[in-house]
């Protein structure tokens, strides 16, 4: 059974600091997605990583994928309060002839002034 | 504007009652999905449908039922057999099952009275 583990699950950081969220998964996959969720809201797609070595950046967030290590990272640079949200990674696998998206439990990020 | 509309935003269920959550999309997407989200957890797949009049069980289908009579609509019924229905339910759609084009609705919070 595929496991997708995010680390840490809770992250409290100060504005202006840098930090990295990790997403490990237990089976082969070349596709990984990062989503953001604000409290009581839907999920917003942040990054789609489709191959080994893929790196995507948007503003203060940068995501990367190492398929050999089965690891993706979401790096936050000079955090601001607006980045406070829960971040999910999700891995796309083929199971029983169908594609399936398996989510991690999420990392709740709080950026303090 | 194209998008996915879920209704209602909040829903309360009495014991033994079936309730139906609505999901409508005007994106002309073939594939639609229902996910359940519990506090502090990732999303878990309940049911999905790749084409009209066809759907498959996800990881936690017990106690739920769906229909796909029209391309635009994918309602989810939470039956009385679902003993722990309190959760946030998210509907999503994509072009032909391609997760990189996954769009989410705004969600329905279901609670038990």
Q: How would you classify the quaternary structure?
A: heterodimer
Q: What is the structural class of chain B?
A: mainly beta
H/E topology pattern of chain A:
EEEEEEEEEEE
What's the average pLDDT of chain A?
Answer: 92
State the shape of chain A: globular
Helix content of chain B: under 10%
* Global geometry of chain B: globular
Strand and helix map with partners:
The complex is a heterodimer of chains A (113) and B (113).
Chain A: E1 4-7, E2 10-14, E3 19-25, E4 31-37, E5 43-49, E6 55-58, E7 61-66, E8 71-76, E9 85-95, E10 98-103, E11 107-112
Parallel strand pairs in A: 2-11
Antiparallel strand pairs in A: 1-3, 3-8, 4-5, 4-9, 6-7, 7-8, 9-10, 9-11
Chain B: E1 4-7, E2 10-13, E3 19-25, E4 31-37, E5 43-51, E6 54-57, E7 64-66, E8 76-78, E9 87-94, E10 103-104, E11 108-112
Parallel strand pairs in B: 2-11
Antiparallel strand pairs in B: 1-3, 3-8, 4-5, 4-9, 5-6, 7-8, 9-10, 9-11
